[in-house]
Amino acid sequence: MHNLIEKDFKAIISLPPRNDTEAEIFSQWDSSGPEEFNFYGQDFIFPKGIHAEAKAKWIEPEVLLVEIFIEGEIVSSCARCLAPVSLEISGNLMYLYSTKSADSLEEDFGDEEPIELENFGRVLDIGPQIQESIFALLPRKILCNENCKGLCPSCGKNLNEGPCSCEKEISDPRLEALKQFKF
Predict the structure, then answer these.
(1) What pTM was computed for the model?
(2) Are 89 and 45 in contact (CB under 8 A)?
(3) Residue 153: C-alpha distances to residues 85, 96, 164 (Å)
(4) How far apart are alpha carbons 100 and 108 in whole angstroms?
(5) What would the pLDDT profile of 112-126 be if each residue is shown by its tens digit?
(6) Distance of alpha carbon 138 from its chain centroid, rounded?
(7) Distance CA 170, CA 179 (A)
(8) SS3 sequence, 26-55?
(9) Measured between alpha carbons, how far is 144 from 54 in angstroms, rounded to an integer?
(10) What pLDDT sits at residue 115?
């Protein structure tokens, strides 16, 4: 089993015959179990591991299309109240590989910028793109629910469980009128 998030993860796929635009090669990887990591200050756990699949196909003699599918369950903390939150993630991402620069390609691939390689061998390591796909699918902010009230900044009580008994202090006299509103 593999750890799909470790720094030097290798995902080697065999390439289809060079000029055969009909042939597709399929590979898959499963991580070995719970994986933990911190991404932009948020801790994530994949409690059941991660499943990754890749399909490679030539779309031009010098351009390879690799479609990567990722799925898994993530557990993290709510950004407001710190309660554990479990979410399913899945998605397809596509990558183009080429030995030519994007400027010299005959076909325009829109926003897709090919990953330039010196040459193609019989195999290709797509490990960095699998990791990039996993990170691209992670939510930037996780909430236990859309209306999460968070924690009291004074006492730390979870305000989803009810109000705290802290006295709400207003330090700016211009904001005194806000005391009449109920939150």
Answers:
(1) 0.78
(2) no
(3) 21, 48, 10
(4) 13
(5) 778 888 888 889 999
(6) 3
(7) 8
(8) EEEEEECCCEEEEECCEEEEECCCEEEEEE
(9) 32
(10) 86
Lowest mean pLDDT among 25-34, 54-63, 165-174: 165-174
3-state secondary structure 109-142: CCCCCCEECCCCCCEEECHHHHHHHHHHHCCCCC
| 18 vs 128, more confident | 128
Reading the block at residue 32, the tokens are 């070995």
Length of the chain: 183
**Residue ranges per structural domain of the chain:** 12-147, 149-183
Tens-digit pLDDT profile for residues 33-86: 777 888 888 889 999 888 999 999 998 888 899 999 999 999 999 999 999 999
Q: How far is CA 34 from CA 3, 6, 47, 54, 132, in A?
A: 9, 12, 4, 22, 19
Q: Which residues sit opposite 123 in a β-bridge?
A: 14
Q: Quick one: which of 95, 98, 97 has its CA closest to 133?
A: 95
Q: Apex CA 149: angle with CA 143 and CA 154, to 5°?
A: 120
83 touches 158 (CB < 8 A): yes
Q: What helix, strand, coil percent values describe the chain, rounded to 5?
A: 15, 40, 50
The pLDDT value given to residue 3: 66
